[in-house]
Known about the structure:
The termini are far apart. The chain has three domains: 9-61; 66-102 and 113-308, Endonuclease Chain A (Endonuclease, Chain A), CATH 3.30.870; 314-500, Endonuclease, Chain A (2-Layer Sandwich). It contains 19 helices and 20 strands. It has a 16-stranded mixed beta sheet that branches. The protein has a two-stranded parallel sheet with strand order 8-15. Strands 12-18 form a two-stranded parallel ribbon. The protein has helices at 9-28, 35-47, 49-60, 66-82, 97-110, 126-139, 158-169, 180-184, 189-198, 250-255, 269-286, 322-333, 349-360, 376-383, 386-392, 442-446, 459-474, 480-484, 488-500, and strands at residues 114-123, 143-148, 173-179, 202-206, 222-223, 227-230, 234-238, 258-260, 263-267, 306-314, 337-341, 345-346, 364-370, 395-399, 403-405, 409-412, 432-436, 440-441, 448-457, 476-478. Helix 5 (97-110) packs antiparallel against helix 12, helix 6 (126-139) runs parallel beside helix 7 and helix 14 packs across helix 19.
Amino acid sequence: MTFSFDLSVWQLVAMTIDYAIKFVMIGIVPENRRPASANAWLLLILLLPIVGLPLYLLMGSTLVSRRRHRIQQRATAALNDIYTRTPDHPADARLAPDVASMIRLNRELTGFPAEYSRVRHTWTDYELVMRRLATLIDAATSYIDVEIYAVAWDQTTGPVFEAMERAVQRGVHVRLLFDHIGSMKYPHFRALKRRLTDAGIDWHLMLPLNLLRGRFRRPDLRNHRKLVVIDGRVGFIGSLNLIDRGYLMPNHRRAGRQWVDTFIELEGPIVTSMESLFAVDWYTESGELIDLHTAAALPSPHGEDVNLVQLLPSGPGYQTEPNLRSFNSLIHHASERLILCSPYFVPDESLLEAVTTACYRGIRVDLLVGEKADQFMVNHAQSSYYEQLLDAGVHIWEFPAPYVLHTKFALADPEVGSGSGGGSGSGVGRPVAIVGSSNMDIRSFSLNYESSLFVAEGTLLRDLHRLADTYLSVSSELTPERWNRRPWYRRYVDNVMKLTSALQ
């Protein structure tokens, strides 16, 4: 028997290039990457090299973020110098050893210590928080710093921007950072930029993507932080964007979607930490250094509303993944109950194992998610994990559509102790929490710049517990029986979208 191959030269060349690409990428893609992520990229490249290779070069490589890595490393070193004589937490804080260990972890990875600060209010009403921001901006005397993922000048946010405009007119320096891709998809983006300039607001796009001006970066990176600092004395952190709660898009309006968020008003030394984080981002985008001497003098407050809190930033500039490590540590800390609230719950292997292990340890785990996510791929990627979670014993609660539960927090052992500061340092199961901008998904842990708050003691723990109870009271539990009745095509789509979640 004889075999004959009638291959033209171009076919031979194409086949050689194809196999060469596959051979080379097998040795490149896995470097410094999780196995799941590496396998997903390799699967795409090996099956569809014409599509997979350009996508990897555009979104999978870390080379384009070297400058930001360098800036973050210098900023972390500077923070270590500033806080060199500051302990990880106040000396009079009576903390359980594992809580002190979590604070040490966050300090080691980010440079920020835990400090006593006051929680003025936990805001959950869109209209009220906008009015509150406008009132505080109208009272500002020195500067206003705002860093928000999505921004639009609309009927809801108009009072805030008008207050900024008035502040500029009386000599207050207003600085605004907002994500380029995160904001440009909403109506009147060009008009927004003109209005901001006309108002005298000093604004910059975060992570700008402008090939015509030589501004290029990975298009999948986002600055997802949500911070407001007024005169270095009052700060806001949470999940709220500076946009109408319906997010202005026609498809959202047709569906009747309304976002449900939380914004926490703070004062005290934590505001200095927030200002430092903003200063790094501002320098990255503008090249301008911010003088922090005014905020640095803030004293530690006292009283019933004092909390022991620690700023927890994260993002591609941090190569040690402080966000993911902190969430995993909190989950492992839980001894009785764990409440997780995230609009997008797409865990990596370590988070999935931490949550299911908590169930196997006898911990009650309540997971709050939306009944239907606002994004198709995320909705199906998220639900692809439900079977594993339900089998382990996780109680999955679906917040009713068309509302989008956008609040993000993790709360361990809320029923244990008073959670109001002080207390015994020897007890097991001390309540702790993380709240802020970070979703519990692979994107937030690896691709987004996030700003969260680690709460070791204080009234905010009770606030989050009450908020969780409110959400749970209107949510319906997804039972294993109901989930197992889903149609076969839903299973298929879920599994396909699960593969895309690891493409980092």
